[in-house]
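Quick question: what would this complex look like in 3D?
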Amino acid sequence: MREAFHDSLNHISDQLVEMTRLAGSAMTRATTALLDADLALAEGVIDGDARIDEGRDRLEDQAIEILARQQPVATDLRMVVTAMHMAASLERMGDLAAHVAKVARLRYPLSAVPAEMRGLIVEADQVAARLVIKAGSIIAAKDVTGAEQLNADDDQMDHLHKEVFRILAADGWSHGVETAVDITLLARYYERFADHAVSVARNVEYLVTGVWHSRRPYADVE
Amino acid sequence: MREAFHDSLNHISDQLVEMTRLAGSAMTRATTALLDADLALAEGVIDGDARIDEGRDRLEDQAIEILARQQPVATDLRMVVTAMHMAASLERMGDLAAHVAKVARLRYPLSAVPAEMRGLIVEADQVAARLVIKAGSIIAAKDVTGAEQLNADDDQMDHLHKEVFRILAADGWSHGVETAVDITLLARYYERFADHAVSVARNVEYLVTGVWHSRRPYADVE
C-alpha cells in the first residue's frame, strides 16, 4: 500500500518533468516559427498545447485522488500540493508558447520580428530554454541549490526585457506601431514564461524544506 | 471537532471573498490613478498589493494545515483545493492592478492614456469591477448559475481588448510608440484580470459539482 503510494508520487514527479520538456519544446519551436515565418510549425505548437493542458488536468485529478485516498502528510502532502501549483505554471508556460506561435501565424507570410530585434528574441528563447530545462532537473532531483540559482538566469530575462523596451522607447523606431505592439506582447510572453519556471523551482524549495523562501520571487518587470 | 472543521472551511470562503474585494478595489483605484495621473493613489495600490499577497499566503497555509489535520474528502476536499487555486488567481489579480498603477507612476505627471482611449479604459475597468464583484458573490453563495453566466461579462472584455488593438493597428495613430506600448500592456493587464475572475468562477463550479465544465474557459485574446 505505502509502496504503491510512493510509486504514485514518483509518477507525479515524472509527469511534471515531462511537462517541462513539452513546454520547453513548444517555446523553442514557437520561436523558430516566429523568426522563420513558418506557418506549419506555428500551427503545430498551437495544436500541441492541448497535450500540455491534458497533462495538467491529469495531474490535478491524480493529486485530488491521492489527497482523498491516501491522506498524505508532511513531505508527501507538500509533494501533492506543490505538484498542483507546478502543473498550473507549466500549463501556463504552454499557453505562452502558443501565444508566441499565434503572433507568428498572425503575421505570416511576414516575420513579426524586425531584423534588429531578432538577436534579442533568440536570446530570450535561449534563456527560456535554459530555465525550463533546469526546472525539469530541479524537479527530478529535488534540487534546492539549483532552485536558488535559477534566479540568476531569470535576471538575464529581466535584462533582455528591459533592453527590448529601451529600443521601443528610443527615437528612431522605424517599424511602425503594429510591430511595436507585437514586440511588446512577445517580450511579455517570454518574461512570463521565465517567471513561471522560477515559480516551479520555488515550489521545489518549499517541497523539500517546508519553508517558502519567497513566494513571489518574480516582481515582473514593469 | 467537525464543527470546528466546518468553521475553518467557512473562514476560508470568507477570506476568498475579502480577497475579491481587495483585488477589485485595487484595480478601480489603479484605473483612477492612471486616468487622473494621481501618483499618491498609484503608490497606494502598489504598496497595498502586499496585503493581497499575504491573504494568499495565509490561505495556502490554512489549506495545507486542513489537509494535514482534517484529511477532508469529497466537497470539503474540493473546497480546500479550489481555495488554493482561487487564492492564486486573486493574488495575481492584485499584481495586475499593481501593474496598471505602475504604468500610471511611470508616466506621471502625464497620463499614459490618450484622450481618445480613455473611454475604453473606463469600460475595461467597469467590466473588471463587475467581474470581480460577481466572483465574490459566486464564492459566497456557491452560485453555479452565476459562475456560468460570468463568461458573458468576459466576452465584453475580449471585445474591448480587440477594439484597443484595432485602434492601435489603424493608420493615423498619432501618439507614438511609447504610448502604444503602454496601451498594449494595459489592455493585457485588464484582460488577464478578467480571465482570472472567470477562472475563480470555474473553480466554484467544480467545487459544487465535482466536474470541471471547462478548465480553461479563457482562450486569451490573441
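Answer marked as accepted. Chain B has one domain: 2-209.
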